[in-house]
TrEMBL record:
The chain crosses the membrane at residues 5-25, 63-84, 91-107, 145-173, 185-208, 234-252, 258-280. This is Glycosyltransferase RgtA/B/C/D-like domain-containing protein. It holds the Pfam family PMT_2. Residues 45-193 form the Glycosyltransferase RgtA/B/C/D-like domain. It comes from the Bacteria. Coiled coil: none annotated. Keywords: Membrane, Repeat, TPR repeat, Transmembrane, Transmembrane helix. The keyword Repeat applies. The lineage of its organism: Bacteria, Candidatus Roizmaniibacteriota. InterPro entries: O-mannosyl-transferase_TMTC (IPR052346), RgtA/B/C-like (IPR038731).
Length: 294
């Protein structure tokens, strides 16, 4: 419990001053006028409901949006600590949780009220993942409950789809001898994701090519794929050297070159193959799981 208090104390110490910040950028449009749970460019109904609930109770006061966002972030760090304890020693788990807590890349998600969906889907997705990892006997009821929680995370932000993949990887690596668990989970996610997709289609909430504020949102699918190696390089660099951070990235690569496409692609493929070979050779399931996560 002492380590949990360390996480809470550092979270409040580092981000506490953000509670007194005002609204900025998108916040001024989103929160300074009356908002409805259904007023959103994206199909993120759970996020919209939470935002509108805070607004309807506390009004357009920045403090309360920042407060709940900070609480969600700290609770997420605590969840990470307990989740990592399932695989690592307590000290290492604490260090990893603190890195997540204080990493500069997370400042926007904590301090920018319009980015509340980031902390919401992360916390909810980790909750679903933790239920899978912490349960010794995964009954159909537990699988259903945990998967529904993952679906709720998906209704907060589309990026939560990664948690469905992480759970599948975990079950494949650590519950391989219990094929019924993997089969039940696979069937359930197919049903839920198909339902989710049908609801989005029926509601007209599908991305339309050419729309969006940022340049990457207005280019073709092929051009987006071409940008993936450099995007991965950017995020790896940001993780280890978090300098010159910005709230938005407006660069996009339209013509591949050795520096901006082939070199990053070659290095990343080599890194991936090295990790795969190491995992297979050492039969290190924990390394394989967290490499896929990372």
């Amino acid at each position: 419990m002492k380590k949990v208090w360390i996480i809470i104390f550092l979270g409040l110490l580092i981000y506490g001053f953000s509670l007194f910040n005002g609204f900025v950028w998108d916040d001024e449009v989103v929160f300074q006028n009356s908002i409805s749970p259904f007023d959103s460019t994206y199909y993120r109904p759970v996020t919209s409901v939470i935002r509108s609930t805070i607004y309807n109770i506390f009004g357009p006061r920045p403090f309360f949006f920042h407060f709940f966002q900070l609480i969600f972030h700290i609770v997420t760090a605590v969840f990470i600590y307990y989740l990592f304890k399932r695989f690592f020693k307590e000290t290492l788990s604490l260090i990893l949780a603190l890195i997540f807590l204080v990493h500069p890349a997370n400042v926007e998600a904590v301090s920018f009220a319009s980015a509340m969906q980031e902390v919401l889907f992360t916390l909810t997705g980790l909750t679903g993942l933790y239920l899978f990892i912490s349960s010794k006997n995964l009954s159909i009821a537990k699988i259903f409950l945990s998967t529904v929680i993952l679906l709720i995370a998906l209704l907060m932000k589309e990026t939560a789809i990664v948690f469905f993949v992480l759970v599948f990887c975990y079950l494949f690596l650590f519950k391989k001898n219990k094929q019924n668990v993997l089969i039940n989970y696979s069937i359930l996610i197919v049903i839920l994701l198909m339902t989710y997709l049908l609801v989005r289609i029926s509601g007209g909430n599908l991305y339309i090519h050419g729309q969006g504020l940022f340049p990457i949102m207005r280019v073709s699918f092929i051009t987006r794929l071409m940008n993936i190696p450099l995007i991965i390089k950017y995020y790896l660099g940001m993780f280890f050297f978090p300098i010159n951070l910005a709230i938005a990235q407006h660069w996009v690569i339209k013509l591949p070159s050795f520096i901006n496409f082939f070199l990053p692609l070659i290095l990343e493929v080599l890194l991936f193959l090295t990790a795969v070979i190491y995992s297979l050779k050492k039969k290190d399931k924990i390394f394989a799981f967290f490499f896929l996560w990372f």
